[in-house]
Amino acid sequence: MALPKRIIKETERLMAEPVPGINAVPHEDNLRYFDVSIHGPAQSPYEGGIFRLELFLPDDYPMTPPKIRFLTKIYHPNIDRLGRICLDTTGPPALQIRTILLSIQALLGAPNPDDPLANDVAQRWKDDEPAAIQTAKEWTRTHAMT
Amino acid sequence: MSASTATASASLSDCPRPGRLRRFSQLRAYTQTLSHSSSGGHRSRNSLSSRVPWLSPSSSGPESPTLQVGNSTAPGPESDQPALSRYTSAPTASSHGLGVDTQTSSAESSRSTPPNEPTQRSTNVMARLRSASAVQGRPPRTIALARTATQEAPTSLPEPTPAATDAPESTGTIPTDAVQVTAVSANKKATIRFFPYQDTFQSSRPSLPFVPIARTLPSESSVIRVGRYSERDGIPIPNPTEPSDAPVGFKSKVVSRKHCEFIYSNGQWHIKDVGSSSGTFLNHMRLSQPNMVSRLYSIKDGDIVQLGIDFRGGEEMIFRCVRIRIECNRSWQQQPNEFNKNTESLIKNLGKGDGADYSGCRECSICLGSVLRPYQCLFMAACAHVWHYKCISRLLHQDYPMFQCPNCRAFTDLSAEVDDSNDVVENEEAKGPTEATSTNDSAEVPAGTQPAQATTTTSVEGQQPTPLEPHSEEPDFVTDVENLHLQDDNDEASGSGIDMEDGHSSDFPAPNASNDDLARSATISIPGFQPTQPLNVPAARQPHLRADTPGRSETSDDNPLTPRNDSGPLAFDGRAGMR
Amino acid sequence: MSATIPRNFRLLEELEKGEKGLGAEACSYGLADGEDMMMSNWNGTILGPPTFVYLQPAHRVSVHENRIYSVNIHCGPDYPDNPPTIQFVSRVNIPCVDQQTGKVDPSKLPCLAQWKRSHTMETVLIELRRYMALPQHKKIAQPPEGSTF
């Protein structure tokens, strides 16, 4: 299967100039499928945690955005129980893997309970933010620090 | 300020380079044809900076203007790039205009900046623009700006005289500059555009389609009223060429006759629900209870406004809600700026065969291969972003005639009339000199850098004033221009220096999110900040997604806040009101 | 040559399709545990195939009409390279279902026996329904409605 040049280039660059706190490695048997890890940003409830994600570049990439999901459980108003990210990744094709992962990392640093796609976590975040942050920290300890 | 304009004119009259000026006017004409529909390279990053905390002024406190400058020129211009600052200051003017935009658009967040800062900066911008116009102002520009200008040639001409020393065009130039200056300030303040927005992520039903609408306020006190389109009102004008506060009408029954208003005050656009029955939603937040007038809510570039809620599943067009993507404070992109001029000079390289210099060559953000090699079919959007035709063609046809730049998200109407308004003028003054007359590429850029030098001397931000050397710097220009290209790339990488290739291919703020920035952003909460926004864009509006969207997704608990109502325009599910 | 979609994203796609009700009307499916990050266990339902009134009266009968059969679906780590395992919760008497356990014998259901990566859980549910409606199966006496394995 011929891998589009764009994907090859992006992968090369991800390898050559890794982003601090972000690691993305393609699967050997599927070069469109990446194992990703993101370090929880400092001073966020996710600090100290390493969160695993999976990322897949669909056939149509970059016209169709990458598919991304958290594999590590995370308590965050913009991430659902299956690790789906309520971040509209239908961004323009100019967005690259790198930029999208950075924006996910940024999302960890700036949870947004007012996001329209919010879930019950978001409600809790709004009702009782300290408690929600506490839970997020606990989850980080339980699931992301092993 | 007058000193600066004086210098500008001095440098001009000392060194009247007709060839250059002509070349520059070509460039100008060129960028004009490109730029009248608002767009550009640095814009999205900067407009985003108003909403993204790690870019926003408040996140870095009072020194944020410096940051802005750093973004738009280069990190540490005074120490590393004295030459650069010389050449970038003319474009910087527009970037500075943006800096002001950013500040105004994020008014709440920028309150922490010293109060004198914005004024200082805006006068600075004015000075720059004015001095730039002293040299650059050409009738073509007048025409282009007049189209978007909010005022007729005004009476309070802020020192247009220097331009008058430019004898050959003196007749045309005075009004030109006058219009330009006011246009720039007025334009910057009071132009707004509405684009249809399809909410791809929530894969809800398509909203009401409409032709993009632009309004430039004739005066600051004008209000743009939005409501249901009524046959009695006559045919609404989507894009008046003159300043207008004509009401905006949508042909949907879920839009009330008087639905909402857009108001411009204190350099900031606002929206207000004026008692609509089915609601006005700003980024999914309902502004008021049914039939209640809301307070003013400030809006910024990229915000999504929804009018009403789908009725009867929105199956019939007339029952669909209206979703509008706001574009405002983008007029800086309509000026020549570093980015579109850079593109222009790169494109000129194409004619030069193998010997051409591609050192500043950008890459196609779709395939990440380099564009601007000879013998490739290219497409350039009005924002001066360029792609291989093959790469971009799908986006061109996807929502034709609307096209959204995948890099900077500027919208373009591909079916818009070709703007040949400056051809006439062009022919008069730029007859003859084309590629053949220019010995190298520096020819057109120095013309642009003349005002740059002039303005630099009055620069307040601490850019190193550079002595004028009008006659002796030709060779430097060549090399500096090359540096400029390279630097431009650096520059585009958002100044953080960590992410060279992303910057210019995406103009996305995330590259700035270094850990420091993240750390900072984590501790600062910005009202209205929405992390989804950077990505929350209809650019890759996907028809297949839309086709997939059933009327049954209410069951999905992923989108409980999407305003939606199948029982009637006056009934609510209550969820919106809870917010 | 198209990209190979990894298991989890494939399952997410199926989940979203199922949630939105985009699939066939007569079948539905969803995650058994909404917090299972591996998305291994699913619930499916099959609406029993109806009687066909245009057939000869003798053939009209469908013992399944108006019944709702629920099944458990398990997608292993190698899904969709390998088929899911299906187990009926509702009692049903058809040859491909083990009458002790309710498990579907993959060798007896063509879509499982000749599994393709493009097959989905929905494929299987639809095929099970069609299987029930086959002339040789639709008149087999069925256990009481609502009984379970």
Automatic annotation (TrEMBL), chain A:
Keyword Transferase set for record: yes
GO molecular function, one term: ATP binding
Pfam families in alphabetical order: UQ_con
UniProt-listed SMART domains: UBCc (SM00212)
Enzymatic class: transferase
CDD domains in UniProt: UBCc_UBE2N (cd23813)
Domain of life assignment: Eukaryota
Keywords: ATP-binding, Nucleotide-binding, Transferase, Ubl conjugation pathway
Enzyme Commission no: 2.3.2.23
Domain UBC core: 2-145
Protein name in UniProt: E2 ubiquitin-conjugating enzyme
Protein source organism: Penicillium daleae
UniProtKB/TrEMBL annotation, chain B:
UniProtKB keywords: Metal-binding, Transferase, Ubl conjugation pathway, Zinc, Zinc-finger
GO terms under cellular component: cell division site; cytosol; ubiquitin ligase complex
Domain FHA, residue spans: 224-287
Matches recorded under SUPFAM superfamilies: RING/U-box, SMAD/FHA domain
A GO BP annotation: protein ubiquitination
Gene Ontology molecular function: any one: zinc ion binding
Segments of skewed composition (Low complexity): 1-11, 34-60, 446-458
Pfam family, one: FHA
Biased composition (Polar residues): 61-74, 86-123
Biased composition (Basic and acidic residues): 545-555
RING-type domain residues: 364-409
Stretches the record annotates as Disordered: 1-123, 148-173, 422-475, 488-579
Protein name: E3 ubiquitin-protein ligase DMA2
UniProtKB/TrEMBL annotation, chain C:
SMART domains: UBCc
Entry keyword Cytoplasm: no
Domain of life of the native organism: Eukaryota
InterPro entries: UBC, UBQ-conjugating_enzyme/RWD
Keywords (A to Z) from UniProt: Ubl conjugation pathway
GO biological process terms on file: DNA damage tolerance
Domain UBC core: 6-149
Keyword Transmembrane: no
Species whose genome carries this gene: Penicillium daleae
Pfam families reported for this sequence: UQ_con
The protein's name in its UniProt record: Ubiquitin-conjugating enzyme/RWD-like protein
